[in-house]
Amino acid sequence: MENFVVISGCSGGGKSTLLDALRRRGHPVVPEPGRRIVAEEMRSDGHALPWVDLAAFAERALAMALGDRRDMQTAEGWVFFDRGLVDAAAALEHATGRPVLAELGMAHRYHRSVFLTPPWPEIYQSDGERQHDFASAAAEYDRLLKAYNALGYRTLLLPKCSVEERADFILTHLPT
Predict the structure, then answer these.
(1) Any long-range contacts for 156-159 (C-beta under 8 Å, 24+ apart)?
(2) For residue range 97-121, what is the model confidence (pLDDT) as tens digits?
(3) Domains of the chain, with CATH numbers?
(4) pTM, 2 dp
(5) For the segment 22-63, what is each residue's pLDDT rounded down to a tens digit?
């Protein structure tokens, strides 16, 4: 959908904080599927965790991303997604080797401009829901950059600046 805008990129690069700033400005936002899945799985002692079963985690993220798109179809104005279907498909392909990215990525499009948070070691933090190290996060970033470019998206790297400046950057790079 042309009003669905993805903010993707390096884990720990400030996406969730940026989405909060966009929400405060009145835009609908969709939280990251991965964080929601990890929270659910940890509450229920589940195994669809990226550090336990990456394929099961990615399958759930894919289903959740499709549901998020469906749920937001009637939203007006820009809708910002903290990651999305392409991220989930890239993770599933990485985990299983199954070529799902091209088919799913072309069938369920977002706005042509995708905003990526680059690796930023100064703000990266692991926690109970983000257990991978910075090197793994940077490798994931490289896979996502290649995936979005391969699908024909225009990838825009977010500058390493304040959250409000990043929100301004996004809004000035979208058509009015």
Answers:
(1) 156/113, 156/114, 156/115, 156/116, 157/9, 157/115, 157/116, 157/118, 158/7, 158/9, 158/13, 158/14, 158/18, 158/115, 158/116, 158/117, 158/118
(2) 999 988 888 889 999 999 999 887 6
(3) 4-172 (3.40.50.300)
(4) 0.90
(5) 999 999 999 988 888 888 888 888 888 777 788 998 999 999
